[in-house]
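Support request, please re-run this one:
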Amino acid sequence: METLHKTEHNLHSEKNFYKQHHPYYKHMHKDWRFWVGVVLILVALTIYTMSVDFTIQPAPLPIK
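Re-run finished. Output below.
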């Protein structure tokens, strides 16, 4: 009975060891929101480079 209790205790402590919280940047590639952001940024960069330039042109100078 004593060894069974110790074995169960060891299993619980091992599970808790592997469930420790890590910083977000170590597992963010598994998050769907990260990949949506990556795709949106790539689409925006592609549109920007294919459109030659999306900047607003300055108003022409008045002729005197």
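DSSP finds two helices and no strands in the chain. The radius of gyration is 28 Å.
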